[in-house]
Known about the structure:
- Residues 1-25 form the signal peptide.
- One of its GO terms (molecular function) is alpha-mannosidase activity.
- The protein is mostly helical.
- The protein has five helices and two strands; from the N terminus they run αααβααβ.
- The chain has helices at 4-22, 57-62, 73-86, 97-105, 109-120, and strands at 92-94, 124-126.
- It has a two-stranded parallel sheet.
Amino acid sequence: xxxxxxxxxxxxxxxxxxxxxxxxxxxxxxxxxxxxxxxxxxxxxxxxxxxxxxxxxxxxxxxxxxxxxxxxxxxxxxxxxxxxxxxxxxxxxxxxxxxxxxxxxxxxxxxxxxxxxxxxxxxxxxxxxxxxxxxxxxxxxx
Length: 142
């Protein structure tokens, strides 16, 4: 007779596999108004990569030295831009201007134009956090 824990583990594995196979993409109505009789939940997709907190700026940016923390800001920005372009209902807030500045200067003029369109459409927003208030990147200076 199998042990009770083995049965639970087998059931958990089956349930996980079933959910992974049967889950389909659901299109949400993101234009709905607030309903006073319902709990209204707002999710804000945003970045939070402290510049130089546990790793050097370079390590955070390129995703090296993951024994300390798994983070690759370059990949985050690449995937966010791609995701926003694929779905106009998506929005993202990026907060670390030191990383964005480095990423921006590495991009082609075509990608820069695409990012400007995302900003103009309100899909990509920037937020300054306290540590960024004193570090204005060259791409934003006049």
